[in-house]
Amino acid sequence: MIPAFAVLALFFTLLTLSASFPFTPRDTIPSGEKLLILPLGDSITFGYRPGFNNGTDGYRLELSKRLSGTSFEFIGTVHSGNMSNNANEGHPDFKISQIGAVMEPALDMGPNIVLVHAGTNDINKAQTQEEPYSTAPQRLGTFVDQIIAKVPDAVILVARIIQAENDDTNSRIGPFNDAIPGVMKSRIETGHKIAIVDQSVITEDELADGLHPSEAGYAHMGDIWFNAIQNASVTFKDQSPFLATGPAQSRRHLGPRR
What b/e sequence results for 118-155 when a residue is b if at least 16 CB atoms lie within 10 Å of its CB, and e otherwise? Predict the structure, then answer.
C-alpha cells in the first residue's frame, strides 16, 4: 500500500505542474493512487441544514470541487446530499464517544485521509457525570487513538470546531478548541500524521440555525479542508507537525455559490 503522505505529495506536485494547462477532472493522479477521504463527525459532517432532514452535500461539495483535478473518493457508511459520491460518516446528534462506537466499519474501508470535526454535541448538550464538558478534549484524544489503531498510516486532520450563535455554548467551544493542540501534541511527537485544522473561523454569520453552517458556511469549510490537505502533502513529506489554517483571510464566502 502506498503511504497516504506519498500519494498527497504526488497529487499536489502534479496539480501544480498542470495549473497552466487545461485539464480533465480527476486525471492528475495515476490510476490506483486514489485519495480515500473519510469525513467523520456529527451532523455538521452529515451536512445538516434546516429544511434538509436527509442532509445536504455540506462541506463535501466545495471540497470535491477543489479536488476535481485528481482521483478521490469520499467513503463511509452514511449517505447524505445529492452528489453521486455522497458517502461520509456523519452522525447527527452524536457525541464523540457515540461516533467512536460506530465508526469501525468506515475505518475498515481503509481511508488514507480522515477529516475529524467532532465535539459540538459534547459542548452544546447538557453535560453528564460520565461526560463533563471539562473532559471533552481528552475524549477527542481517545477518539483519535481509535482511528490510529485502525488506520495507522492515515493522515488525520482534526478540526478546531466551528463557533455557535449561543453565547453559553460558545463560551465552552473556545476552551475546547484551545485544548486540542495540547491533547494532540504527544500523538504528533510519536510520529502519527495528525494536524490541527482551524474550522473555528466559521462564525455565527455563516450559520443557518445558530449551530449548523449555511450553504456559504459549508463552502468555507470545504475550502479550509482543501488547504489542510494541501498543507499535509508538504508537511508529512518530512513527518513534521503543523497547524493548518484555512483561507479565511483570502477567501471568505458570504453568499451561496453560483
Answer: bbbbbbbeeeeeebebeebbebbbebbeebbeebeebb
pTM equals 0.82
d(CA 158, CA 22): 33
- Tens digit of each residue's pLDDT (9 = 90 or more) over 18-65: 333 333 333 232 223 578 999 999 999 999 999 887 889 999 999 999
C-beta neighbour count of 20 within 10 angstroms = 7
Please, which residues bridge with residue 38 across strands? 114
Across the strands, what pairs with 88?
A: 78
* All three cell numbers of 205: 454569520
Supply the Cα-derived Rg of the chain in whole angstroms: 17
**226 with 67: CB under 8 angstroms?**
yes
Cα dihedral sign, 137-142-146-151 = positive
211-247 pLDDT per residue, tens: 999 999 999 999 999 999 888 877 775 442 222 333 3
**120, 137, 222 from 227: Cα distances, Å:** 22, 24, 9
Burial of 19 (0-12, 13-18, 19+ CB in 10 A): exposed
Q: How many angstroms separate the Cα of 121 from the Cα of each of 110, 135, 172?
A: 27, 13, 11
Beta strands 72-74 and 78-79 are unpaired
Beta strands in 92-141 (DSSP E): 113-117
Separation between Cα atoms, residue 3 and residue 224, nearest integer Å: 23
* Domains in the chain: ranges and CATH: 4-8+34-245 (3.40.50.1110)
